Amino acid sequence: MVEVRMRQVIKRFGPVETIHGVDLDVEDKEFVVFVGPSGCGKSTLLRLVAGLEDITAGDVFIGGDKVNDLPPAKRGVAMVFQSYALYPHMTVFENMAFGLKLAKTPKPDIERRVRAAAEILQITELLDRKPKEMSGGQRQRVAIGRAIVREPSVFLFDEPLSNLDAKLRVQMRIELAKLHTDLNATMIYVTHDQVEAMTLADKIVVLRDGYVEQVGSPLDLYRSPNNTFVAGFIGSPSMNFLESTVKGLENGSAQVVLPGGGEIKVNCETGGLNAGDKVTFGARPEHLMESGVGDGQIPGDVFVVEQLGGESYLYVQTENKDMVVVQAHGESKVKRGDRINIGLPANSVHLFNQDGRAVTRERTGHPVPA
Amino acid sequence: MENIAGTKSSLTWVVHITTVALVVLWLFPTVGLLVSSFRTADQITGSGWWAALFTTEQNEVLRAADPDESRVADGPVYVVSGNIFTDNDSPLDKQILVWGTSSRDIAAYQPGETADLGDGESVTVQANGDYEWRGNEEQISGRGQRVFVTAEAPPEFTIQNYVTILTGGSTTDNMSKAFFNTLTVTIPATIIPIVVAAFAAYALAWMEFPGRALLIAMVVGLLVVPLQLALIPLLKLHLGLGIGKGFLGVWLAHTGFGMPLAVYLLRNYMVGLPRDIIENAKVDGATEFQIFTKIILPLSFPALASFAIFQFLWTWNDLLVAKVFLIDATGETTVMTNQIVELLGTRGGNWEILATAGFVSIAVPLVVFFLMQRYLVRGLLAGSVK
Questions:
Q1: Are B351 and B44 in contact, with CB atoms under 8 Å apart?
Q2: Could you give the angle at the alpha carbon of A70 between the alpha carbons of A64 and A76, nearest 5°?
Q3: pLDDT, tens digit, 9 for 90 and up, residues A1-57
Q4: CATH number of the domain at B163-384, out of 3.40.50.300, 3.40.109.10, 3.30.70.1150, 1.10.3720.10?
Q5: Which chain A residue lies closest to B299 (C-alpha atoms)?
Q6: How close B298 gets to chain A, by Cα (Å)?
Q7: Is the pTM of this model over 0.90?
C-alpha cells in the first residue's frame, strides 16, 4: 500500500509563499494529475513530494511514513522530467542502470531489470546509444525507462510530454495510460494540458496560485466544477461565461435572464441567492444548440465559422457584445453574418454566484443529441 | 536583399583576410625559428632563413689536387684529374653553372668546356665537379690550378644544434635538464589547481550554503589582483613555513595564482549545466560527491581541458614565479625560460643555439595547442556564452 498524503503543506521561497496549506490524498495505485496554468504551483508541489524542495510547513507521508526530511533517494520515488534530464555522457543502458549501480545492485540484476524495462518501452535496440543520437520521443522513453528500472513505489512525472510534437504526444499519452495499467503503481503527473489530465487521470487536482481549487475524477470536474476557474479550465473549447441576473427563485430552481431578453429556469441551490442578484451563467460550447432547440434561447450574430469536418465552431456575438462559442456536430449550414438563436438545455447550464462559486447541482454529461 | 547579401560577403572577406593576416603573423617568426634552428652559424650570418629553403648560388675558389702527388703521365703530357669538390672537402651535391680560371673573369666557361691556359696547358671542368688538368711536366707542378666556380647548392640543414642543446657536454648549453625541470614544475602546477578548483566550482555552483555569493564575488575580485603583488609576502610565508625555494613552493604559488580564474571559469561552466540532470541524479540516489564525480566532472570536460591548456601554457612559459620561488644558487632546479636567459648571456652571438633553444622551449606548447585546440575554443565559449 503506497499512498501519498499531504497535510497542510506550505512552501515559501524567501518571503514569497507559493503553496498555501495544501491537503491532498493520493491513494494506492492511483493516477493523479496536477493541472493548472503555469505558475500555479503544480510543479513545486510535485517537487515537494520528490524531496527536491524542502517543505516549509506541514507534512508529507509516503506509504504511511513521514518523509519531510528524507532525501529524494530514500523516498522510493522516481521522477521523469520535462527536459528528460538524461545523462548526456552515458549510453541508454548506463543511464538506466545509474540509479541501480548507486544502490549497489548486483550486476546480473541490473542487466535483467534494464532489459525488462527496455522491453516494456521497446527501446532494446537503443541501449547502446547516447542521448544525442536519439529523437525526442526515444529520449522520453529512456527517461521513463530510467524511472521504471528503479521499481519505485511512486512515479512522478513533471510535464513529460510537453517537449514532444502533437502527434507523438498523443501516442505517448496512450502508452503512459497503458504503462499505468501494466505497472500498477501510484503515479503523480503534472501537466498544464487539460486534455492530458482528462484522458490519463483517475483523479485530477486543479491548482491555482498555490491553492487546490478542486479534486475529483475527470468527469466530476467536467460535470460539476466548483467555481468558474475549474469550469473554464476543464473542457475544450472552454466554457462560455455570460453575466446574468436572477429574476426569481422557486424551490430548487432559479429563473435567470438571458442576453437578448430570454429566460431560462435552472435547477440550483437557492439558499444563497436572492432575486436581482448578479450571477455568472456558464454553458459549454458542446451543449449549445445552433438549431435553437432547448429550454432557453440566446439570439446573436455569427461572426466566424470554423469548419473542422467532424464538428464546427460558431463564434456568436450576443446583443450584450459577449462572445459565445457554439460547437455543432458535423458540417454546420450556418454562415458568417447569419443571425441564429442558440438553444440552451437547462440541465447542462451552470450558475455561479458573485464569488464565482457554483450554485448548480451536479449537471448531466453531454446531452443526447436531439 | 541584395544589400544584405553584399554586406555579408564583404564581412566574410574581412574575416578571411584577417585570418590569413593572423596566420602569417604567427607563422613567420615560428617557422623562422624552426628553420634557423637547423642551420649553421655561417648560414645564418650569410643569408636569411627564408633563403635556406631554396637552392642557392654560391661562388667558391677551389684548387685542383696537388700535382706533385697526383699527376699521371699520359704519353708526353701529365694529367691531374679528380673531382674539384671532393678534393677541396666541399659538399658534393652541387651543380656548377659557370666557372673560370682567373679572378677577373670567374664566369668565363660553361661546364664541359675546356679552358686554354696557353702553351698547351688546359683545364676541363664538368657540371658535377669532375675536372681534368693537362700540361707538360713543368706546368703540372707546384700548387694545384685555381678554379673559380659558381655552383648551385640545394638547401642544407643540420641537426648539430639540437645535438648541442640536448646532449651537449657543457652545462651552460645543455637544455635537457632544464626541460625536465620545466615539466616537473608544469604538470603538478596544472593538475593541482584544476582538482582543487573543480571541487570549489561545484560547491559554488550547486551547493546551498550561507556566504556563497560573497565567496563568488571574492573570486571575481581576485581575478584582477596582479600576482606581482603577492610575490614577496608569499616567498616570506614559504620561507617562514620552511618550504623554502623548491618545486613544492613553485607548485603552491602557481596553484594559488591560477586558482581565481580556474574557479571562475569552471563555476560558470558548471552553473550552466541543466539543473534537471543534477536533480535526477539526486532522485537516483547519488550523493553530492557522486554527482560531482559521475555527472559534473565528465560533463565539464571541455571547461577542464580549456583551463588545463591555459594553465599549462602559462606555467610552461613562466619565468617570474620560477625565479622567485624555485631557482636557487645551485642551478639544479633551473627551468627552460631561465636557461634561455642564461644562454643569451653566454652564447649571445650564437643565433643558431638560441634559435634551437627557443624552439625546444616552444615545441611542447605547440603540440599541446594543436592537439587540444578544439577544447580551447569550446571551453572558452561555453563558459561565457549560453
A1: yes
A2: 60
A3: 688 999 999 999 989 999 999 999 999 999 999 999 988 999 999 999 999 999 999
A4: 1.10.3720.10
A5: A89
A6: 7
A7: no
